[in-house]
Sequence to fold (344 residues):
Amino acid sequence: MSPAVFAHLSEGSMADTTLRANRRAFERQAIYNRILVAGEHGSTELMLCGQHFRHPFLLAPVAHQGLFHADAELASAQAANALEAGLVLSTLSSTRLEEVAAQTQAPRWFQLYFQASKDATLGLLKRAETAGYNAIVVTLDVPVHGVRRGSQRLGFALPAHLIAVNLQGIESGQARAISRDDSTVFQGYMADAPNWDDLAWLLKSTTLPVLIKGVTHPEDAKSLQSLGVAGIIVSTHGGRALDGGMASLDALPAIRQAVGQDFTILLDSGVRSGTDAFKALALGANAVMIGRPYIYALAAAGALGVAHLLRILRDELEITMAQAGCLRISDIGPHTLFSPSHLC
Ligand code: FNR
Fold:
């Protein structure tokens, strides 16, 4: 891919502080290697929101996949089918949501961005329901789009042929007329950002499970649980939202503690291997999503590349589970991680 597209994909927000923190948080954790745990009945199967998954890796919503491969989201869907991975399709996909749903037998969730009008948001929601998506993921961590330096310097711009096809015919909303003394952030972006009432309205508008993506504070997690969402995704948007924010993995334990054991939590941002997935599960996630790794694989080798990556991740997770003495996903817990307090 061109340097500008690569920069757009790989970088975080502003100084990349959170991007780096996400990786460091995984590197800080260490897994106990247990011995003499034999078992032929090991399995990575799990249930999420009443749906069966063969393993805990989902493909995160990544916008405009036509930037990276001509087959775009259809290649990701093909790989998800082959490796039975959950697929979360972005509102900003290069392929119509109906077409992706028709080609996806794997569990498929639709990621929804609130639109400028309730009618437009509802329109997308109903299209996703009709197309057969099994859950809605509402992303809420980017009310203001972060600054990306490298891609701006290199002149990244979406090519004219790559439009957000799902939003064709939808009004992008009137740009607010702000006066000279107004802030583009507060009187601009934030004036129309969704609030708790909007989310309550959305929950009433669908019978599908709704998960909220972009949660890092335990109080937000508790409020969402009380409001009746089906689950949350602890995420820093891959370090592309708040720069200077904490790592997703560091946010996870307190959130798990706040919502209890039975609430569905996924995690993304920085997952690069099966051992990373294991660590996230040990600290309280039920499953993980991957973003950039599968887009690199998509760019390099299309559907085969993404399938190959998913196979590697799943194999790595199984090897890690075997070495950590965990035959099932439910065996993975905080006790599998080294903690200085375990030392006598
Ligand atoms: C994203 N992400 C994202 N999230 C979302 O909810 N809707 C979207 O349209 C996009 N688009 C998008 C584009 C690009 C280029 C990237 C890199 C990321 C965030 C994504 O779903 C996920 O949270 C992160 O990518 C996870 O972090 P890693 O695995 O990339 O470190």
